[in-house]
Write a structure and sequence with these properties.
heterodimer; A: alpha/beta; eight-stranded mixed beta sheet; 3 helices; 8 strands; elongated; B: 86% helix
Amino acid sequence: MKRGLIDFWVGLFVMAGVAALLFLAFKVSSSSTLVASDTYTLSANFENIGGLKARAPIKSSGVVIGRVTGITFDPKTYMAKVSFAIDKRYQFSRDTSASILTSGLLGEQYIGLEPGADDRMLEDGGRITITSSAVVLEQLISRFLFSKAQEGGSSGASEPASNHALEK
Amino acid sequence: MANPVVKLISRIGAPFTDALLKLGFAARFFVAVLRHSPIALLRFSLTMREIWFAGVLSVLIIGVSGLFVGMVLALQGYDTLVRFGASSSLGILVALSLVRELGPVVGALLFASRAGSAITAEIGLMKATEQLSAMEMMAVNPIARVVAPRFWGGVISMPLLAAMFSAMGIIGGYLVGVQLLGLDSGSFWSQMQASVDLRFDVINGVIKSVFFGIAVSLIAVFEGYDAPPTAEGVSGATTRTVVTSALVILGLDVLLTAFMFRGV
């Protein structure tokens, strides 16, 4: 193989490899890791975070505006403390509420922010106080069953019998 | 040493001592290759030839295998996802499995069997025909002239080949998912793009392939250099290159994956 021909093929090979990398970088993936200088950090306490994980998206009106950076357990309040980084372009009022939502029936969980009406804005390191926890399916079902059982009880004398049956 | 018990215990110990000796020799060999690398990298035309030999000639098998693996992933993934009504997530499945695992790992396995075995056979035959000794006689260091360029040729080629494997696989997944199974092209790409992270998934995949490139290239040149200078010895060394490379690739993959993707 002649020297010049080898150089040509190697050049082509390297170009194809770099093209493949660029394809992976721009067409296949997106950089969700926001640059640290362009974000500010907020935190919120939740009674139950369900299946929320680090790197889960923060959405407002369905648009991704940040990422969960850390989840810790607060031993004093017995609540989960979730901290997240938000794009500096988006400011939120101090009475913003945060809730843990699920995309679709089996989808991943994310935090939804609902802006309030306060004129003052949340600063870096601020805390969102109005929160609602993740919906836990087991709790929903048990609540539904209890309310059903109570309905049955109020309707007549069958209550003691059914309770008895349950205890057995 | 006539005692049969001592003999038995020694026979159990011998393979371990041999393995340890070989490992130590390989480590010293690695240091020697690194020490002679500047010369090989300065005379870059030597390394250029090896990139051509290890990289360019492997493009066809890597590209075609990547295309097929991506197609199979799409067919199999669709079959399962469609039961949950989640067939639009097919792009995520194909891209994540290729970028994180299959691209680097299968790419490295193919590279070891296509290029690694050839490197071992070449160096082993040079040794068997006493070309390496002849070089030493002429005061040319065979590690700098023969081994280091082949090592760096492999190390440079491997990440590029793994990226090509992943890219071809995603194109294969697109062909099957969108053209054959009729998924929506827009949601295929946009869901993929939303779920695959550049730093976390793509860069970690490239880091993996760099490690695999170093491991496979080192094993290939070492087995060739260490081969007994006979026809039988060279054939045994070639086999060992492929077997050891495969084991090391998969073992390293477990370690790297545990470091990169655990608990996040």
